[in-house]
Amino acid sequence: MHLAVALVLSVLLGVAYAAQMGRWLRVLQREHYDPTSMWRFLARWTSPQVGGAKAPVRAHPRRPVTLSHVLVLALVVAGVLRAYDVTAAAAVLYGLFCPVGLSIRGRTSQLEWTRRLRTVAVVAATFSALVTALVALTSIPFLGAVIMVIAVPPVLDLATRVVAPFEERRAMDFVEKATKRLAQVGPRVVAITGSFGKTSTKNHLAAILGADYGVLSSPRSYNNRAGLSRAVNESLAEGTRVFVAEMGTYGPGEIRALTSWFVPEIAVVTAIGPVHLERMKSLRVVEAAKREITERAEVVVLNVDDPLLANWPESLRAEGKRVVTAGSQREDVDVRVVVEARCWTIVVEGVTLGSVEEVLGVQPTNLACALAAALALGVAPEELVARTKNVTGVAHRLNVETSAAGVAVIDDTYNANPASAQAAIKVLATLELSGRRVVVTPGLVELGPEQYGENLRLGQRVAALPGELVVIGRTNALALTAGFERAPRRFDTRTLAVAWARANLGPGDGVLFLNDLPDHYP
User: Fold this and answer.
1) Cα-flanking dihedrals φ and ψ of residue 309, to 5°?
2) Half-sphere exposure (CA, 13 Å, Cβ side) for 487?
3) Which pLDDT tens digit goes with each residue over 76-110?
4) What is the mean pLDDT of residues 345-358?
5) 419-431 pLDDT, tens digit each
6) Of 13, 189, 421, 479, which is least packed with CB atoms within 10 Å of its CB?
7) Which among 522, 519, 498 is positioned nearest to 438, based on CA atoms?
8) Which domain holds residue 128?
9) Count of domains for the chain
10) Are residues 345 and 218 in the same domain?
11) Does 480 share its domain with 454?
12) Strand order in 510-514's β-sheet?
């Protein structure tokens, strides 16, 4: 092989490796450094099971032949024929362009070169260099570099696991600092978890308490160890009387570990649903993981409209907990928010306290949980109605506005579960519109074996409006189309779908933007 050709191919292989690292480091960061995410997303992008785990056999079309498949086949054939320059060229093309659609820069989130990401990248690059050097001893040109270009996802899996013990030690330093700070300031802690409704309930409680209660709530979705320790270390000021902390989990033991140092006086559980089933596998595991928040709490607030949570009070009381039940449907709850003619009527222990105007997009069960937590903190019942007037909707969660073009726009892009999707479609159905009702969505994810069925039902609900369906991406396109029972409009990105809506909808029309998948999903 000519030396100049070998040199050019070597440089290009280096560039291709860097491109692959950029793509997959971004996926790793978006998935909170879960090493197994490398395999899940590699499968999604290179050999997607389009229908979902429980899709009927007929729903699985022939998997499309992608550029990734063609180039991997070319690698194998060229290797067998010992056409090593062709092998290298195929690897370069694979590294630069595959998986097609998974961009290096990212539209919805760019790669952030944090200290942790740099550490993982250095470990992965060092390992790749060592493997390339060792394989060079076989005297097969480019073999090591070709392997490393193709193997970036598993190498990042390995590097993340290697770095994990050091990250754990570093994280515990922040936890120790946060623990001392909590002890110094001594706020009363309200911890909120649930498959959905956590952030809304947290914001509603903070609004109800107001400035006179000296309340601090964890910002945005800071609901894991890193986020909560950072919130304490950076934001917990002297004089803070109440800290409202959102707590999330991807599996058993995570909330238990959080509450071991961030001990809640009051625990609130908003709902148990099929969220993160891809990781936790079953609803029973989800329920057990959420229940960990009650273990150290003195008071537990439960949304007993949820049938699973309705089974908790008896056993929790047997453990010596004070249980406050909340909801909007059942009459036998301690705190109830009844929706009547666009008003909320607040009922505490059977006594009607008064009514306030409904805020569109605020779920009454979340509000009831927030009111129950406020009562547990000592807010007088007679103050609740006035304080409820401070409650507003949460950004990007069922917000309804009218665009300059006269289109009713429902922004529900931050919600991504079956219950919120059903609620959003109900809102679209109840709007007074004279024209079209359109739902723009990529569907729902992380539902494990339930994903196909839930997206099928979502498509059916849109058809029943009756409405028009606009599908973004291909992750759930098959299930949504099957439920809708006719071909929807399809766009590769939300940007294109929004442009279509702006160009084609006008006064009297309504559009629901439901969920917004980050672009590391196909």
Assistant:
1) -70, -25
2) 3
3) 776 666 777 888 888 999 999 989 888 888 877 78
4) 92
5) 888 888 988 998 8
6) 189
7) 498
8) 3-166
9) 3
10) yes
11) yes
12) 399-402, 408-412, 510-514, 437-441, 468-472, 489-491
